[in-house]
Amino acid sequence: MKFRSALLGAAASLAFAPAAFAERGADGHVNVIYWQAPSILNPFLSGGTKDIESASLVIEPLARFNEKGELVPYLAAEIPTVENGGVSADLTSITWKIAPGMLWSDGSAVTAADVIFTWTYCTHPEGGCAQLAKFEGITNVEALDDLTVKVTFGAPKPNPYGAFVGGQSPIIQKAQFENCLGAKAPECTDANFGPIGTGPFRVTEFRTNDVIQLEANPNYRDPAKPAFATMTFKGGGDAEAAGRAVLETGEFDYAWNLQLAPAVIQGMVAAGMGQAISGFGTLVERIEMNLTDPSPSLPEGERSTAKHPHPFLSDIRVRKALSMAIDRDLLVEVGYGQAGRPTCNLVPAPQIYASDNVDCMTQDIEGAKALLEEAGWTVGGDGVRTKDGMRLSILYQTSTNAVRQDFQALIKQWWSEIGVETELKNISASVYFGGDPGSPDTFQKFYADVEMYANNFDGTDPEAYLAAYTCEKAPRPETQWQGENINRFCDPAYDALVAELGRTGEISKRGEIARKLNDMLTKDSYVIVPLVDRGRVSAHSNTLGGVILNTWDSELWNAADWYRIK
After folding, report:
1. What are 278's strand-pairing partners?
2. Are 121 and 186 in contact (CB under 8 A)?
3. Domain 6-273+542-564 - what CATH class?
4. 20 to 30 A Cα–Cα from 70, which one of 222, 307, 373, 378?
5. In degrees, to the nearest 5, what angle opens at C-alpha 484 toward C-alphas 327 and 423?
6. Does domain 280-535 have CATH number 3.50.50.60?
7. Can you give the pTM of this predicted structure?
8. pLDDT tens for residues 218-266?
9. Which sequence spans correspond to the domains of the chain?
């Protein structure tokens, strides 16, 4: 891992645009559009990318990853390493020093107490935290002084950069959230919708699933940043409308995640108002198989929980057959073109962690039929398979998006060819990726048989990402339906291997273990069915400078450096 100092990063930014940051707010207003509307600004209560990234404008971690996947300090004075004494020689602790003079947007000082509280908040036994895997292996977080925090692990931790690092694990203010612990966390609407932060902007208005109004943080650490005095963060609509708003009409300055057919994007760019930017990272579009029964006939609180195994997806032969029927090359051609690659892996990069699994690359309709026959599913008069009086009927849900609906239609057709009946459901992304424990339509609650989405992980090390599938991280009523283990996969052997990864330092060995974990979720069990390794495609106007697409952290990671090209 290479490290760069914050000073070098700042110097590079200034060199790139020497006149851009003469005065905070001098460039007026900037408009950002995410077609998935934020529903909350607390990433510990939502696994949705749109919530994590919008929150990153306001609340920050101690360090984050730049566009090269390199760790850079934000609230921290430097990146702790073994060489500088910040990481203990036995790898059982990491000590972070908060940079002097860091202030919350309300003018109060950032202290070690805020860092400790963040850990307490996410790991509270009576609550649910959407980012719990980031805190894997931590036994204690303590203050050595007001600006120094020591994180202790229960065993040597070769990759100690999980907690408090990246857009998924920011620091929240103790004074604002201290009465929001455990089961009370979702009830703290004012704090969750308007967190006090250290980022370049602060919230002035939040309309859930609609729009966020922000203004420059008057206490931001660089007195010349941000260049914009105010920002409108608009959510909702669809990817095509978002792309047109930047590339054709110029109404907005930045549009996120243009999940559109390549020809559509090319046509928008031809208007000459802006440019599309792209890069590959670890974003994988996949289908998750529900290992628990989502039937509405079950009592509320028991649906999609470990109390009731899924009536047919518990059989690996059914899951494998569903995967075998899919033509991933055609999905890439239809949905992404050069911005997509077919994949069988949950972790497609970096190369050291990417499995050589290619078992899913060739569509095999006949093989899928044979597998279902072997499992006892026979075709009825209407073409749908049955077994013991049960129809092989699937509810397949995803978010509302043109590419995803195209994928649903294709996959439904392929599944029909092997005798599977499929009902399609699409849900507003603002709801689907929201964290409302009362909603039946969140991807965490998973009241369907299979569901499709994409996500990725901060940085270049997949340890926390793979640790998300341990038994304890399944969303359930006791966690307010928060948790990363969406399909309720539970294998003690997997949990043990995650623990081994957490104490393994040799990079080649880490790669070997991570590949095994990837394969356990994919080709060994078909609990996760990867489809497409997606390149991130976004767009910005020709008048917005300083934008650097980052596939390893929040796309808005350097919004403090944005400026208006005159």
Report:
1. 537
2. no
3. alpha beta
4. 222
5. 45
6. no
7. 0.79
8. 999 999 999 999 999 999 999 999 999 999 999 999 999 998 888 899 9
9. 6-273+542-564, 280-535
